[in-house]
Design brief:
Elements: H1 2-8, H2 15-32, H3 42-53, H4 60-70, H5 73-81, H6 83-86, H7 95-111, H8 115-132, H9 139-157, H10 166-186, H11 197-212, H12 217-234, H13 240-256, H14 260-277, H15 281-298, H16 302-316, H17 323-342, H18 346-361, H19 374-382
Helix pairs in contact: 2-3, 3-7, 4-7, 7-8, 7-9, 8-9, 9-10, 10-11, 11-12, 11-13, 12-13, 13-14, 13-15, 14-15, 15-16, 15-17, 16-17, 17-18
Length: 385
């Protein structure tokens, strides 16, 4: 509620205050668990759901512990057999909220490449969506389900939009199909949708067409014009869909028009907005730093690309014992060396290897250290700057 109030006031959320509220909420939940009867109270469940939803994604153990209990086989079977409970009787359940909880958990499993666990939750989510689909006002549940599905397939595709590999083409087709279904179910009432699903998936469709090289300039520009109109008329200046719009425009001018100046202008807008609305460094790395580095690479701007990737690793250093940051630091370093080798920035690569080796010595858990492949070491060692 605090977040939505601030959005309506055309102000970014007060993250310090929200963090304090979350800590209070977790303490209240811990106290309530001492009394078994409290766990069946609708208010308890409402507080639990909103606390998990607002917990930053990198706190994986907490999110999976709570959602693991919520989505246990016995509990979800009971919920599916009791539609009144699922539809929010006495605050015990809410299909929209439940679908968002599935999204949190699925993303964590997918990011950790635990695809079997992710797909088990996706199957549960499908059953929930089907259970309430015909109930008045539940179109959004199906929209959220297909949005989750397209995002899951996107994680599996791992950026290989422009591909001739049959398995990757199949994943790309699944993303496109799920995106189209999200658009169909989110179109109704998009003007008052706080999640901006309709506009986000117009942009997702444009992204697929841009990065797969399958869309015409007119088709893509029409999608961007439609998204811009919806965003201008229906969102605040701090809505995260605006950040997505800036990034898609940057891709558009980079890949469709090969225009460094315009692509850079939109990347700068995205960066400025991210400084205001993204409180978690992980999101800034995933949503801004890596895509911008990729765009610069596509444009042949190697210096700018490696500089961004380096900046991303410096953010990760702040969280040396956090698994999610360790994984993304590994990715950033891999992208750094690929880009550095392609751009013949061998001296920068050698310095980066030396820095990473030094940082690895300070990390206790071996799985959180960055692995430097022998092949990468050999190419960089023998390269001439």
């Amino acid at each position: 509620r605090e977040r939505y109030v601030r959005i309506e006031d055309e102000s970014p959320a007060d993250m310090e205050k929200l963090t304090s509220l979350l800590m209070q909420s977790k303490d209240i939940l811990r106290q309530c668990r001492r009394e078994p009867a409290m766990k069946e109270n609708g208010v308890y469940n409402s507080l639990l759901y909103i606390t998990v939803l607002n917990t930053q994604q990198y706190k994986e153990e907490y999110i999976l512990a709570e959602t693991g209990d919520i989505f246990s086989d016995s509990k979800i079977d009971f919920v599916l057999k009791n539609k009144a409970r699922l539809l929010g009787e006495e605050g015990r359940g809410n299909p929209v909220t439940i679908m968002k909880l599935y999204t949190k958990a699925v993303f964590i499993h997918a990011d950790n490449k635990r695809f079997e666990e992710a797909e088990k939750l996706l199957e549960q989510a499908r059953k929930v969506a089907e259970k309430v689909h015909h109930h008045k006002g539940c179109d959004k549940v199906y929209a959220l389900y297909y949005d989750l599905l397209s995002s899951y397939y996107d994680i599996r595709l791992d950026g290989f939009y422009d591909t001739e590999d049959p398995d990757q083409e199949l994943l790309r087709d699944k993303i496109f199909d799920a995106t189209e279904k999200t658009l169909r179910y989110s179109k109704k009432g998009f003007s008052y949708d706080s999640d901006h699903l309709y506009a986000k998936n117009i942009l997702a469709k444009a992204t697929i067409l841009i990065r797969s090289c399958l869309g015409s300039d007119k088709e893509i520009s029409d999608l961007l014009d439609t998204a811009q109109k919806i965003i201008t008329e229906n969102t605040s200046q701090y809505a995260d869909v605006r950040l997505q719009y800036y990034m898609v425009c940057a891709w558009y001018f980079a890949l469709v028009h090969d225009n460094v100046e315009l692509a850079d202008a939109f990347m700068k807008k995205a960066w400025e907005l991210s400084d205001i609305i993204l409180s978690a460094d992980l999101r800034k790395i995933e949503e801004v730093i890596i895509p911008c580095a990729n765009i610069f690479l596509e444009l042949g701007c190697y210096e700018e690309s490696v500089a961004l990737l380096y900046a991303g690793t410096r953010l990760c250093v702040k969280y040396p014992n956090t698994d999610s940051y360790a994984r993304i630091k590994q990715d950033l370093c891999r992208y750094f060396w690929w880009t550095g080798i392609e751009g013949r920035k061998f001296e920068l690569c050698r310095k980066m290897i030396s820095l990473i080796e030094s940082e690895n010595e300070e990390i206790v858990d071996p799985k959180n250290r960055v692995t430097i492949p022998d092949k990468v070491r050999s190419i960089i060692a023998n390269g001439i700057s």
